[in-house]
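Re-run requested by the PI after the first attempt was lost when the workstation crashed. Everything re-entered from the original request form. Ligand of interest: zinc ion.
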Amino acid sequence: MNLFIIIFTQIYKIMKKSLFNIFIIFILLFKIPSEKAKIIGEESFPVFKEDFTLKKYGFNKSDFEIENEKIKKRENLSIILSKKGISVNTIDKIVEKCKGVFDLRTMRIGRNYSFFTSNDEKELKHFVYEISKTKYVIFDLKDSLDVKTFERKTNKVLKTASGIIESSLWNSMKAKGLNTILATELSEIYAWSIDFFRLEKGDYYKIIYEELQLKETNEVVGIGEIKTVQFQHKKEDFFAFSYLQDGIESFFDEEGLSLKKPFLKAPLKFGTVTSGYSKRRYHPVLKRIKAHLGTDYGAPRGTPIMSTGDGIVTKASYGKANGRYVKIRHSGTYQTQYLHMSKFAKGIKKGVYVKQGDVIGYVGSTGLATGPHVCYRFWKNGRQVDSRKQKFPKSKKVKAKDLNDFIKHKNISLEKLNNIFIKDFS
Ligand SMILES: [Zn+2]
């Protein structure tokens, strides 16, 4: 950027008398690669609705002639300002003033900007660029050449949303014209209980949330906090009630238990670790060095094996090495696997939903095993990691002193959910 301005200034000084040379300068201007001020990406922001307010960006509309524009391809601050006749020297000073206030590299094609020319002196006074729908930056083009960022004031308006899953949560929300940020938020709220990659047709959701609207124009600019959610998945209801406790707002289920659940430390209530996770281990059956990507818990044959988290059984089958084993998908991130079972627990098969602590099978020594044990394997993002080295959030619940208040809050929220009508059902 600075190099560009220096070159520009030098050429300008040498050739400023000739119109033809100025033409050359403009050709150069588009040819010089200017990494710093390059405008990347293309985004379109909806044009603000016609508003009848008296002020724009805090300026009295009656005092100025206002030109509204959008950033075009290959435009950057210096190009935009020089087109308005602002000197290279001044532009350089403005660029200097931006340091630590506004990063010029973040200017994007399609975003709004405005020039403010005073009515009395007919002088170009301010340049305003919209960083986002709620943030903008004002450049003073006279005197101080100050650069300052501002935030628009917003109102939080309580809204409801609902829908039935046809293919994905994302598609359902898009089809209903909802902000898809809601889908992302839901997948985070339920990260420990629902696998949003495996939703089923007929699953449905009801959401009570805050919508952010600009105070000046009521234009919707985003999503505030999510208050209550009912998500029905595989005919089972998953509730999320946002509740403030000790100054922290977090989500609890209908029993007042936090939705963020750590995994159980081990799949057995009792038992001892007989072999840990290791990239190099002498295999007792194969009699050679081999990676051991799980933790072995030795226990008598028939000891119940529990699922360490809520999830869906993706495999309940037999393998030559694994023996009888179960694999459970907990979320898009986590999966667990339990090997060498003597038998599966009743009803455990592919597609079944299990809760944390549910018995899924019994200790045995099927497959490559010297004695009865369960080999517990922990998958994170498709890779087997050491379950005992994972850090999980502590499980919280609503404190005893707040429980009555929580139940009241829950009942009011449930009533609100009942009043949400799912249009797709009609
Ligand atoms: Zn093992």
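Saved to the shared folder this time. Residues 275, 292, 294, 296, 375 surround zinc ion (CB under 6 Å).
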